[in-house]
Amino acid sequence: MINTQQSTNKNSLSAKNSKTSSLRLFFSLLILLATTNYALANSAKICEHYLGADVGFTQSTDATFSKGLYYGEACAFKFNIEATVYDSQAYDFASGDVSDSGRCEFQIYLQTQEWGLRRVFKTPKDAPAPTLKDPVTQIENYEKHVKWFNNRHGHMPASVSYQGGGASTATTGKLFNYLLAGRTSKPDGLYNNDIAVWAEESLPSKTKFYNVSTRFGDDPSDTAIANAIAVFEEAIKNNGWFRDFCHWHTNPIHSNKATLYNFYKAVRKTINAHPEKRIVTVGSGTHAQQAWYRAIADASLKDDGGKLTVSVSYKVPDWMLKKWSYEGFTARPVDCFTIPASVKVDTTGTSLAGKDLTAMDASSIRKLSPNIFIIEAPFNKTTETIDITLAPTTSPRYANESLPIITSITKDAQNWTITTNIPVKLVIFSLPSGVDLSEIQAKNSANKVKVPLRQNTFTLSHKIPLSIVSDSSLDYYAGVISEQKQSTLKKLF
Predict the structure, then answer these.
(1) Is 171 strand, coil or helix?
(2) How is 390-419 classified by DSSP, letter by letter?
(3) 398: pLDDT strictly greater than 60
(4) Mind listing the pLDDT tens digit for each residue in 252-295?
């Protein structure tokens, strides 16, 4: 006869011992994990879009005539949009001032039509013009432009607008040694009416994403803006990149409803209608650089129980490091990078989950949710690995993406004083008295939008001499922009 009670006791003791062993193993593993650095899969990665956006929006122009440039800049200030201006030395205009204020990103306009080449190379009117299809002329044209652009804007261009198309295969092949991105308006041109990003021939497949483009200003219908917004909605739906091109100085070409002001207004309304998406307006050159980071960099995350280490490994291809020279100016394609790499960090399941963080050695840090952060990792234009330490803090200093607010406007015997809640740069725009910015048509309104004053230092207080804003036939507006490129436009008087 079997003693069932004794058997039950033995089984119970065995189960207890097994449970105790399992608990010991579990706690041993916890101790091991807490005292050993380990990589966390998929916890840090290079962002698809700049600053961790779900969607990117780019709008651009070229030909920096003042009647279009100041108008477009004012519209961009009002609707908080990062616009792209492709600049050329054929237009000897003070675009450098607009560039310094920071609302518009400047990239390079490479002209290839005969009149453009005549002006750039100062060819006499009675002499033969440089030929469009001559690779030597094309490359010299680009090198000459880049030297001028760097002197004017203080940085290398990352994106090019290529005028006229018609370049030879030899020319386009050589231009791959210079550029990060480019666009043209001719279907037979270099990049088929699109901004393209490539590595000699094409980027690795991991950098591909949904992207679409429009030219709302060339749409002859009364629904031109609605048509473009419908395409923008598709980009939002697919977490893609939307681009539009419009000549500011001839806007509107067709329907009087299709003004840049109304387009930007519709864009901002569309962005605000999608709070579930992080949508960033971004310059074409900035977007190109971030897309390239996805091709040449990788990120990983390690947890040692008290801090996190983000490692960003850059591998620069040889062609990006090749130097070229023109009249004493020397550069490399890698010098086109002017921004840090945007990196997404997910702290879920780490020792710092749910905590506020500082990011030592990062250019900036943003907190998108309790465990999602965007850091900007420096790039020293060489193959190397950059380590960024994330540590807990009770006094976080996240990048401030809120709109600046003008808190007061006061007057004394000499100045108007404008104060804001965060440091800003200031641009004073003037319009004819009683004319709203929404009523301006740049094509018929030469220089109706003017800029009597720029103050390109970030500060909480700006003084405006009374003599500069004393014309009773004009209305004056203040455009202010923060260090994180958030802007507003306010009528002063």
Answers:
(1) helix
(2) EEE-SS------SPP-EEEEEE-SSEEEEE
(3) yes
(4) 888 788 899 999 999 999 999 999 999 999 999 999 899 889 98
Task: Give the whole-angstrom CA distance, residue 491 versus residue 475.
Answer: 8
CA distance 102 to 487: 10
Confidence band for 185, pLDDT divided at 50, 70 and 90: low
Whether the domain at 54-281 and the domain at 292-392 fall into the same CATH topology: no
Q: Which residues of 306-328 are buried (b: 16+ CB within 10 A; e: fewer)?
A: ebbbbbbebebeeebeeeeeeee
Residue indicated by tokens 């074409």: 284
Q: Is 233 left (phi over 0), alpha (psi -120 to 50) or beta?
A: alpha
DSSP 136: H
Question: How far apart are the C-alpha atoms of 187 and 190, rounded to whole Å?
Answer: 8
Domain boundaries, the chain: 54-281, 292-392, 406-491
* Second-level CATH architecture of 54-281: Alpha-Beta Barrel (3.20)
C-beta neighbour count of 26 within 10 angstroms:
10
8-state DSSP, 197: E
Does residue 187 have a cis peptide bond before it, meaning omega lies within 30 degrees of 0?
Answer: no
**Which residue would you say has higher pLDDT here, 178 or 11?**
178
Task: Give the other-Cβ count within 10 Å of 282's Cβ.
Answer: 27
* Tens digits of residue pLDDT in 155-178: 999 888 776 554 444 445 556 567
What percentage of the chain reaches a pLDDT higher than 70? 75
Question: Do 235 and 225 form a contact (C-beta atoms < 8 A)?
Answer: no
Please say whether the structural domain 292-392 has been given the CATH code 2.60.40.
yes
CATH topology of domain 406-491: Immunoglobulin-like (2.60.40)
pTM above 0.70, yes or no: yes
